[in-house]
Specification:
Length: about 290
């Protein structure tokens, strides 16, 4: 792979700028002259206070069954806790992952609240805290570095935590992946920001599902500045950089999503938006009504 490696924000900003139209997954090629913009530099807009509307969780009914899965992280004294709810009705399996970065609080808080959800079809699996060491520290990374750079396509994940997360992927065997993140800037407004955007794998199905998720959340957002938008997680002209959603998109070939909310808004609103986006995507794939 030639060319400079991009940070998640640079990759997502570049990918989102590419017009929608690519419907086939393939091996991405690096573009020349790329700059690493993976920084948390937004010092602008102060936190805004927004009161989100109450939402009601989907309820698949009394026939649903719950399964718990613990995946060890050798050589660390840690494990990943996964909860899966089976509706007992034929349908796809969705896996939701929060907490890849320990300082992106709304992601793992929203994922934790989704544990109360029960799909009306298929299965819903949730890994709320994918990076327990980083969450415990409240930090983006650990001594192993940035977890969301450890999922190279066509190769084994490059750190113990990443390999454990991939073990979850292999055991759950999802048809859909959603990862929950946050950004200190807003996409197209701040050079290092990708907030208020749902990035998706470059297929028409993933694009349409992302749009449904965005529409669901945007119903509750009055500010035009904070309206959510969609973009590609990567593109054949942009090299994958080790994101979990890239690996599932290219190696497993499933619809994969990165949900990015803006940290400049109060936590309750961010959590509500993340859940609304997830609900819209799940609705698209008929897991929820």
């Amino acid at each position: 792979m030639s060319g400079a490696r991009l940070g998640r924000r640079a990759v997502l900003q570049a990918a989102a700028a590419v017009s929608i139209g690519t419907t086939q997954l393939g091996t991405a090629q690096a573009s020349d002259g790329s700059n690493n913009a993976c920084t948390r530099q937004d010092n602008g807009t102060p936190t805004q206070t927004i009161n989100p509307p109450a939402d009601s969780p989907p309820n698949g009914g009394e026939d649903s069954t719950l399964t718990s899965l613990e995946v060890e992280i050798p050589p660390l004294n840690q494990s990943l806790a996964v909860t899966a709810v089976d509706s007992k009705t034929t349908g796809p399996t969705a896996l939701i992952v929060g907490g890849i970065h320990g300082d992106e609080v709304a992601g793992y808080r929203a994922a934790t609240q989704l544990l109360d959800w029960s799909p009306t079809a298929g299965q819903l699996a949730i890994l709320p805290k994918a990076n327990p060491g980083a969450i415990a520290r409240g930090s983006r990374s650990t001594e192993y570095g940035n977890l969301n750079r450890h999922f190279p396509t066509k190769r084994t994940p490059s750190s113990p935590v990443a390999r454990a997360v991939w073990n979850v992927i292999e055991r759950v065997d999802p048809d859909i992946l959603l990862t929950l993140h946050e950004s200190r800037g807003i996409y197209k407004e701040d050079s290092s920001g990708v907030g208020q955007t749902v990035f998706h794998s470059p297929t028409e199905v993933a694009h349409d599902a992302a749009r449904m998720g965005v529409r669901r959340a945007n119903r509750t957002i009055g500010s035009q500045r904070l309206k959510l938008k969609t973009g590609h997680i990567s593109h054949p002209s942009i090299a994958p950089t080790g994101l979990l959603a890239e690996k599932t998109a290219y190696d497993v070939e499933i619809p994969s999503f990165i949900i990015e909310t803006y940290e400049g808004v109060n936590l309750n609103a961010r959590i509500s938006w993340q859940k609304a986006i997830v609900r819209g995507v799940l609705d698209y794939f008929d897991l929820t009504d």
